[in-house]
Amino acid sequence: MPTYIMLSNLTDAGARTVSKKPKRIQEVNTELEKAGVKVIAQYATLGPYDFVNVVEADSNATIAKASVKLAARGSIRITTLAAVDIEEFISSLAE
Questions:
Q1: pLDDT per residue as tens digits for the range 18-66
Q2: d(CA 23, CA 90)
Q3: Domain ranges for the chain
Q4: Which listed CATH number (3.40.50.300, 3.40.50.1370, 1.10.15.40, 3.30.70.920) goes with 3-94?
Q5: How far apart are CA 62 and CA 31, in angstroms?
Q6: How far is CA 20 from CA 24, 33, 47, in A?
Q7: What is the pLDDT of residue 6?
Q8: Residue 35 pLDDT
Q9: DSSP helix/strand/coil, 53
Q10: Phi (first) and psi of residue 11, to 5 degrees
Q11: Cβ atoms within 10 A of the Cβ of 4, count?
């Protein structure tokens, strides 16, 4: 299944929600799972992004739809990157 990196930043509204209800972060993971996106790893980060998620989805369309639905709430801004396993990448270069 394709792997994606989701980089996200909380909006002011999102920061208020998370500070009042930290478990909301995990509730979003459940919503992603229902949308066909499997959360492999999740990190709160310092620097330009608040969170980094490693996820899997069956297609670009699935991850794009999930990203748009989350962002439409106004609590988060998301940048989603397709990721290629390094061994696959090296093999593709050797062909």
A1: 999 999 999 899 999 999 999 999 999 999 999 999 999 999 999 999 9
A2: 39
A3: 3-94
A4: 3.30.70.920
A5: 13
A6: 9, 23, 22
A7: 97
A8: 93
A9: strand
A10: -80, 175
A11: 22
How many other CB atoms are there within 10 angstroms of residue 66's CB atom?
23
The continuous run of DSSP H or E covering 56 comes out as strand 51-57
Q: φ, ψ for residue 50 (rounded to 5)?
A: -85, -35
**CA 35, CA 22: separation in Å to the nearest integer?**
21
- Torsion angle (degrees, nearest 10) of CA 54, 55, 60, 65: -110
Two tokens at 11?
A: 């909006």
pLDDT at 95 over 80: no
Beta-sheet pairing, 37-44 with 51-57: antiparallel
